[in-house]
Amino acid sequence: MIRRAGDDHQTGMEASELELPAVARLAPDLRARDAQVNQLVHAHHDFIWRLLRRLGVPESNVDDATQQVFCVAARRVADILPGRERSFLFGTAVRIAADSQRSHHRHEQLEGALDERVGAQPNPEELLETRRRRELLGEVLAALPLELRTVLVLFELEQLGKAEVAELLAIPEGTAVSRLRRAREEFKVCARRALLRAGHGRVER
User: Fold this and answer.
1) Is the pTM of this model over 0.70?
2) Tens digits of per-residue pLDDT, 76-95?
3) Which helix (H) or strand (E) element contains residue 2?
4) What angle in degrees, to the nearest 10, is found between the helix axes of 124-143 and 173-197?
5) What are phi and psi for residue 201, nearest 5 degrees?
6) Of the CATH numbers 1.10.1740.10, 3.40.50.9100, 1.10.1040.10, 1.20.1090.10, which one belongs to the domain with range 17-110?
């Protein structure tokens, strides 16, 4: 109970009577916004995490980068059009990944995440080989321009169709396919170089 000033402390009013109309109207809006943000996180967190990792964000920073993406989404949730949630998050993730690379300049830390799920417990030799393969993939992906790396990751690793990739990149399907062809060619070149550096000797073309 909140007392009225000047009423000899005899009468009072409930706290709810003091609630400002604007605040009362805001409460449902805030709850709706929080629910929308939570839905975005549940639906797209894993995709954004993998995307950031495969676009070159170091493993030690990928959790923070993922959080940045959804913080941006939370601030701009009112601007996200229905049905365009994934596109918004994708564009934000690409920008944050690019910023991360410019900030660190440490390509040797990049490890490609294949997101493999191994059923049986591997022995130490298998663990070492898996790590080497991931490091090699990370090195090759890091050598690609961001434009080519992005389309390759979406097509080959995320297994998205060309129509969805074109939509995410906001480019025509023909451009997406052409870019994928260039990315595959460049990937092969970079892979040969990486294998040679890793001491695999002569690598077949």
Assistant:
1) no
2) 988 888 888 999 999 999 98
3) strand 2-3
4) 130
5) 70, -145
6) 1.10.1740.10
